[in-house]
């Protein structure tokens, strides 16, 4: 893995008998070194290696964070497993919706039984949910067997906390309210060898009235572009061909940097790296998606032909209450311009149904945007109040049974449009990255096109990580069945 280069030499160079080093990077390596000795001892005692499992909820940024957790666990001597019946289990939580909280509590309820059977087992909970004091209290009271709790700002101290719980057998709770530190140089255990996310910024300043993210992830902080590019180059050297630039609001990347750099400039620079074949980004905010970014996508075939543009609502009245800073017509104009400039682009979105005070007229406005933009796909959500956000305090919350009717209308409009747009691609040959073996259909692999569409084709594990010209044969709504085209001469790299 890219940042494991020299990690072993760096750990070996640290004097583990001395005090912890001052800089964060060395300090964490120091704790990995110390923890490794402890884990080795425990493994020798029980006559087998200790196992560890990371369970991730939520967004791509959480998935990336879990790769860091897994990297530290693997470097510390744990054998990683997907089973929660492990010696160490960590839940990396999400709190964007209430059902994400409930899922974490559900897992904790189940794990208490496993822990009773395995006295060695230690359990940790981290991530966005832990930045809400009520959740930390609830875990301490209802799930007292949890050994380690920390939040989003101090994930880079994971090795130290892990060492403390194994060294002392005491519980550790460490919640920071903020940090200005960015530590992205620790070991990472990537889930996929051929693609990887790169965090380019953290936090969000937008304060959409329904969203908890600015409260749990803090204010926007951008990473130095040189460090991002170095990480991308190392990933490319390690065989990664597809990169996803990650941030809560990637288009406001660069604010506050000593050497100013816009998101468009960063995108262009990443595309210049040899070996990188595709670049994606997630997530832009419609008000910040500037024309220079559209131009970079248009002019650079390495940038995926996919823009995820969260609409949330088509009603100006609701958009204002959501604090989204754009109108319905501005959104439609932006989508029109993207489609005009970037042929074959797919535009996907997020839509919230049932925001406080939403009326049938407001839903009709949302349906109108769906028809006029013709989204290639959309994640539709029923509004879920998050404690501490302005929207949760609004008086006119809508009963669930009323929301369901509107939700079904929005969902069926989204599905109809998505099927129509996908169906129009039938017969085309497009380039797909083979991502994994299809677990549901024997003898098939699953590929992803530049426009983010999924295609299942006959194949086997040896094809994983390769790009193939794919003939799109049968449209199944928002995905395809296809096969490798007879010749790649007609392949459309888009
Ligand atoms: S842009 Fe809005 S919805 Fe997205 S993370 Fe920021 S506050 Fe939340």
Blueprint (SSEs and pairs):
Elements: H1 7-13, H2 24-46, E1 51-56, H3 60-75, E2 79-80, E3 88-93, H4 98-117, E4 122-127, H5 133-142, E5 148-150, H6 158-168, E6 172-174, E7 195-199, E8 201-202, H7 213-217, E9 221-222, H8 225-237, E10 242-246, H9 263-271, E11 278-282, H10 291-299, E12 306-308, H11 316-322, H12 328-341, E13 346-353, H13 360-374, E14 377-382, H14 400-423, E15 429-437, E16 444-449, E17 454-458, E18 467-475, E19 479-484
Parallel strand pairs: 1-2, 1-3, 3-4, 4-5, 5-6, 7-10, 10-11, 12-13, 13-14, 17-19
Antiparallel strand pairs: 8-9, 15-16, 15-18, 16-17, 18-19
This protein binds iron/sulfur cluster.
Can you count the helices?
14
Largest sheet: 6 strands, parallel
Cα-atom radius of gyration:
23 Å
Question: Which compounds are bound in this model?
Answer: iron/sulfur cluster
In one word, what is the shape? globular
Q: Output the CATH homologous superfamily of the largest domain.
A: tm_1862 like domain
The rounded distance between the terminal residues' Cα atoms is 29 Å
Tally of domains: 3
CATH-defined fold name of the largest domain = pyruvate-formate lyase- activating enzyme
Number of strands: 19
What's the level 1 CATH class of the largest domain?
Alpha Beta
Question: How much beta, percentage-wise?
Answer: 15-25%
Q: What would CATH call the architecture of the largest domain?
A: Alpha-Beta Horseshoe
Helix content: 25-40%
Give the uncertain stretches in residue-range form.
none
Mean of pLDDT: 92
Structural class: alpha/beta
Sheet with most strands: strand arrangement: 2-1-3-4-5-6
């Amino acid at each position: 893995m890219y940042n494991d280069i020299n990690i072993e030499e760096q750990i070996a160079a640290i004097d583990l008998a001395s005090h912890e080093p001052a800089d964060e990077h060395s300090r964490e390596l120091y704790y990995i070194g110390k923890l490794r000795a402890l884990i080795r001892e425990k493994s020798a005692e029980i006559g087998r290696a200790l196992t560890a499992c990371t369970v991730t909820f939520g967004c791509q940024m959480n998935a990336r964070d879990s790769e860091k957790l897994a990297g530290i666990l693997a470097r510390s001597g744990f054998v990683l497993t997907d089973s929660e019946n492990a010696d160490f289990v960590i839940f990396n939580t999400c709190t964007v919706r209430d059902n994400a909280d409930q899922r974490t509590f559900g897992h904790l309820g189940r794990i208490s039984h496993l822990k009773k059977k395995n006295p060695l087992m230690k359990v940790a909970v981290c991530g966005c949910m832990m930045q809400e004091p009520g959740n930390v209290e609830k875990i301490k009271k209802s799930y007292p067997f949890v050994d380690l709790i920390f939040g989003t700002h101090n994930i880079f101290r994971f090795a130290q906390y892990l060492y403390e719980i194994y060294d002392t057998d005491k519980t550790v709770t460490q919640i920071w309210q903020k940090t200005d530190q960015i530590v992205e140089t620790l070991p990472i255990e990537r889930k996929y060898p051929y693609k990887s996310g790169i965090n380019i910024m953290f936090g969000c300043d937008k304060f959409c009235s329904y969203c908890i993210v600015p409260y749990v992830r803090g204010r926007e902080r951008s990473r130095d572009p040189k460090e991002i590019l170095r990480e991308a180059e190392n990933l490319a050297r390690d065989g990664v061909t597809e990169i996803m630039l990650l941030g809560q609001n990637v288009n406001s990347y660069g604010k506050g940097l000593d050497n100013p750099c816009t998101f468009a400039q960063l995108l262009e620079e990443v595309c210049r790296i040899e070996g990188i074949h595709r670049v994606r980004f997630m997530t832009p905010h419609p008000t910040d998606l500037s024309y220079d970014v559209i131009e970079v996508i248009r002019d650079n075939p390495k940038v995926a032909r996919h823009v995820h543009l969260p609409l949330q609502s088509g009603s100006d009245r609701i958009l204002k209450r959501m604090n989204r800073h754009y109108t319905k017509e501005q959104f439609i104009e932006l989508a029109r311009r993207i489609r005009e400039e970037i042929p074959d682009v797919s535009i996907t979105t997020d839509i919230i149904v049932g925001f406080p005070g939403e009326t049938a007229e407001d839903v009709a406005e949302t349906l109108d945007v769906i028809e006029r933009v013709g989204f290639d796909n959309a994640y539709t959500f029923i509004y879920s109040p998050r404690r501490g956000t302005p929207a949760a305090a609004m008086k006119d919350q809508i009963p669930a049974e009323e929301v369901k009717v509107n939700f079904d209308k929005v969902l069926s409009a989204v599905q109809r449009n998505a099927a129509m747009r996908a169906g129009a691609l039938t017969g085309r040959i497009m380039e797909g990255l083979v991502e994994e073996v299809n677990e549901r259909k024997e003898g098939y692999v699953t590929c992803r096109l530049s426009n983010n569409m999924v295609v299942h084709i006959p194949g086997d594990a040896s094809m994983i990580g390769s790009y193939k010209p794919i003939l799109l044969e049968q449209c199944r709504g928002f995905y395809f069945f296809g096969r490798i085209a007879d010749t790649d001469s007609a392949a459309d790299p888009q």
